[in-house]
Amino acid sequence: MTKIIDIHTHVGDIFHENRNITFKTNIKKGDYEDPFVEVERSGYTKPLIVSDQKEHQRLIDAGQYRVWECTLENFLIDMTESKVDYACLLPVLPNTSFEEYLAASKLDNRLLPFTCPDFSLKIPELEKKLELDLSRGARALKIHPILQNISLEDPKVEAAVEVFGKADLPTIFHVGENSYYGPDKNYPSNPEFGNPRYFYEFAPRFKNYPLIAAHCCLIAEDFANNTKGLDNVYTDTTMCSAELMKKGVELIGEDKILFGTDYPFGTFKYSVEEVRRAFNDDERMLNKVFFENAAKLLKFSENK
Ligand SMILES: [Zn+2]
C-alpha cells in the first residue's frame, strides 16, 4: 500500500476573522448549507467557483464555517480515518502562523509545518525570520497573494523565495483568481493577484528553485502551455476530478503532480478516492502522485 503525503492543508482560521481555532477542542460540525459537499460528492466535476453572486456568497459562508471547525483535533481524526500518512500544514499570515503549526507538529509527527513570509517586516528582517524558521524545521514556504494582499512582482516575494530556494526547498503559491469575502467585508485583499499570469511571469525568473503553483491541475492545459520548458514548476491535485488529474500528468508531467486537498475546503476522503480512480491499479503512478514526488521535493524521509 502506497504512503500518502498531502502537500496542501490548513488548520485553524486562515481568514481575517482571525479566531484562534487550532487548539480548541470538542468543536462539532455545524448544520449549514455547504456547497463544498455538493462539489466533492460530484467527484469534483461540479465547478466550485461560480459567477452567480448569491451562489458565491454561499460558498464564502461555508468556507468560513469550515475553517472555524478546523481544529487540530478534528483534522487528525479525519486524517487517521482516511489513512493519510503525512500532511503539510500551510500557514497564511497574519491569520495562522508557522509557530502554531510547529507546535502541532511536535504533538503529532505526521504533520509537516511550512512557514509563510511576514510581509509587514522590511526585507532584511523578513529574511532573518524565514532563516530562523528554516533552522527550526520549516519544511517549505507558502505565499497567498490574495489573502496576504501582495503581488508576485513585489521584491519582498522574491526575497522570501530566495531564502527557501537557496536551501533547495520549494515555495507553494496560491494560484487562482477568486474572492474570499462578500461585499459586507472590508478586509485588504486583491483577487486579481491570484491571476495565473503572475505565476507564469515569476517562474522563469527563478528557474533553479522549485515552485509549486497550487490548484493548477484544474487548468492543466493553460498551465502546461505557459510553463513550457520549465523544469522547476509543480502543481497539486486540489479540487480535481480523476479526469483532470490524468490530464495533468499527461500535459504537465508525471513527476510534477502532487497530491493535495486544500483541507478543510477539500476533504481527505473524496480527494484520495479521486486519485485512486484516476490511476486505478497503476501502483507506480499512485506512488508518484501520493508520495514520491512530494517526498523528493521536500527531501522528506520517514525516519527523520
Ligand atoms: Zn489553500
UniProtKB/TrEMBL annotation:
Keyword Cell division found: no
Pfam families per the UniProt record, alphabetical: Amidohydro_2
Keywords from the named record: Lyase
Residues in the signal sequence: none
SUPFAM superfamilies: Metallo-dependent hydrolases
Lyase as UniProt keyword: yes
InterPro entries referenced in this protein's UniProt entry, alphabetically: ACMSD, Amidohydro-rel, Metal_Hydrolase
Residues covered by the Amidohydrolase-related domain: 5-300
Xref: Gene3D superfamilies: Metal-dependent hydrolases (3.20.20.140)
PANTHER family for the chain: 2-AMINO-3-CARBOXYLMUCONATE-6-SEMIALDEHYDE DECARBOXYLASE (PTHR21240), ISO-OROTATE DECARBOXYLASE (EUROFUNG) (PTHR21240:SF28)
Protein name as annotated: Amidohydrolase family protein
